[in-house]
Design a protein that fits this description.
alpha+beta, Alpha-D-Glucose-1,6-Bisphosphate, Chain A, domain 4, globular
Length: 142
């Protein structure tokens, strides 16, 4: 199995970062503007990216200002069954966000593409928290 793991440091409080990651408004500014999202355990959330099949994620863990875990239940076949986690920790006025996308069956070109795009996701999160402007899918240049 293969995993993706990134860390980003954000000049914002853990509560601000958590709010962006756990609200439809925040996620629409940093990931995709086409979504249906509710931050509660067991919620099945949907994210759309252009003409692709919508991605459906179930929230498995939610700890305010600390952590969120998604389980992918429907998407590209390579994503189904994988988990995405966000671990948040504030120290000295900065917040670290560790993003893990675990459970990939193998390293493929799509895995590599997603690995790159998760890094862009974290850059988008940082820019939005610090400057008020993210880089959602709809404005990215692929």
């Amino acid at each position: 199995m293969a995993n993706i793991e990134h860390i980003q440091y954000v000049n914002a409080s853990a509560s601000k970062v958590y709010e962006v990651l756990t609200t439809a408004n925040g996620l629409s500014e940093i990931w995709t503007q086409e979504l249906v999202f509710t931050a509660q355990l067991g919620a099945l959330n949907e994210f759309s990216f252009g003409d692709e099949k919508p991605t459906k994620m179930e929230i498995e863990d939610l700890i305010p200002n600390r952590k969120m875990v998604w389980h992918c239940v429907d998407s590209d076949p390579e994503w189904v069954g994988t988990k995405i986690s966000f671990d948040i920790e504030e120290e000295g006025g900065k917040t670290s966000v560790v993003l893990r996308h675990t459970g990939w069956r193998e390293v493929t070109d799509f895995y590599r593409f997603c690995n790159y795009n998760w890094a862009i996701f974290l850059l988008s999160l940082k820019q939005y928290c610090e400057e008020g402007v993210g880089i959602p899918f709809q404005v990215r240049k692929f």
